[in-house]
Amino acid sequence: MNKENKTELLGMNIAELEKYLLSLGQPRFRSKQIYGWIYRKDISSFYEMSDIPRDLRENLDENAEISIPRVLKQRVANDNTRKFLLEMKDKKKVETVLIPQNREGNDRYTICISTQVGCPIGCVFCATGASGFQRNLKSYEMVGQILGSRRELAKRLKLQDNQLITNVVYMGMGEPMLNIEEVLKSINMINDHRGINIGQRHITLSTAGEVKGIQRLAREKLQVTLAISLHACNNQLRNQLIPLNRKYPLEILMQAVAYYIEYTGRRVTFEYIMLDGVNMGLNDAQAMIKLIKPLLANVNLIPYNEVNGLDFKRPTPSQIMRFNKWLVEGGLNVTLREERGADIEAACGQLAAKRER
Ligand code: SAH
Ligand code: SF4
């Protein structure tokens, strides 16, 4: 029998699961068993939990659920990057991208997860921003993106392997810092060695510069990497590109980043999208050097991925090299992001599930 309003088990940590099972009159140790089944095995029914007594399995089947999002669609790029369209319980859709660490695609994967359906920030260069905002995702829906994608990937690769995904980047649809409590819960869960077991150092959180969230994350003193989407080094240009800059201008953002570094002792990454004719002049490079050199930080240069209907252009390779050289000569630690999955619009900022039918 299908009951409405079943208890969602996905997203519960061991303590919460224990509490739920105690309420059913079950012994404590069952929570670890069930937790293992949810996160380490790929099951699609409570009846597959072979070491759980039959009456409990029946009880769970009737009263609880594990809502791993369904993969509605997938596209595979030439470099084996995969983009999944995942459907949540309420039929809302988000995109998740899996990027193999080698181009043959038989290796370990980095997963790029979404934190919101759409995004309220509305950066003018971003496909997600252009698609509007619908709602925040719950932590179980973030974790669910990993489980749903891992299941599909293992099936496609014909592998039984729950360690296929080794790195997580919160760089899909949405602004993680506007949903920080659920994001923190999801990190905890991803991190738990009894479950998905991905180390904090393998997790990166990217923000357009939501200062309250940066301060909140600092207080957690996690070992995750904080990435800041910079994209412009003066307020006039940054206001145009990232509307959030009007609320938290560069001086305030940089103060928050300096506080984060001091408080956590962790190196941060500044992401910088290169937009042809917009933010790649010598003056931009000089402004960036002045802003970032005093900090414990890396710069990650990202060639813009063009989006249908938006006016921005990707620079040429020689423009990219020139800009890179200015920054390196100025003493910054720079990496150039390798492009992955652009032929299936799975690259950064090309995610907009709304356009998928
Ligand atoms: N909202 C967060 C995280 C998701 S976006 C943020 O903005 O940081 C992840 C990264 O992709 C950000 O650095 C974002 O600026 C960048 N991005 C957005 N659109 C892009 C595009 N079309 N090409 C390249 N990068 C893009
Ligand atoms: Fe939102 Fe990030 Fe896109 Fe800006 S770049 S609209 S913050 S997802």
Short descriptors:
34% helix; DNA polymerase, domain 1; alpha/beta; 357 residues; 14 strands; ten-stranded mixed sheet; 11 helices; elongated
Can you characterise this structure?
- The chain has 2 domains: 3-65, DNA polymerase, domain 1 (Orthogonal Bundle), CATH 1.10.150; 70-344, Aldolase class I (TIM Barrel).
- It contains 11 helices and 14 strands.
- The chain has helices at residues 14-23, 30-40, 54-63, 127-130, 139-157, 180-191, 211-220, 235-241, 250-264, 282-292, 317-329; strands at residues 7-8, 64-65, 70-76, 82-87, 93-100, 109-112, 116-118, 133-136, 165-170, 203-207, 225-229, 268-274, 297-303, 334-336.
- The protein is elongated.
- It starts with 6 loop residues before the first strand and ends in a 21-residue tail after the last strand.
- The model has no long low-confidence stretch (mean pLDDT 92).
- The structure holds S-adenosyl-L-homocysteine and iron/sulfur cluster.
> Span between N and C termini?
32 Å
Bound molecule kinds, no repeats: S-adenosyl-L-homocysteine, iron/sulfur cluster
- How many independent structural domains? 2
Enumerate the spans where pLDDT stays under 50 for 5 or more consecutive residues: none
Identify the CATH architecture of the largest domain: Alpha-Beta Barrel
Q: Based on DSSP secondary structure assignment, what is the total number of beta strands?
A: 14
**Mind telling me the CATH class of the largest domain?**
Alpha Beta
Could you give a short account of the major beta sheet? 10 strands, mixed
CATH homolog superfamily of the largest domain? Aldolase class I
Radius of gyration: 21 Å
Number of helices: 11
Q: Supply the helix-strand structural class.
A: alpha/beta
Strand content: 15-25%
Give the helix proportion (percent range).
Answer: 25-40%
Strand order of the largest sheet: 3-4-5-6-9-10-11-12-13-14
Mean pLDDT: 92
The coarse silhouette is elongated
CATH topology of the largest domain: TIM Barrel
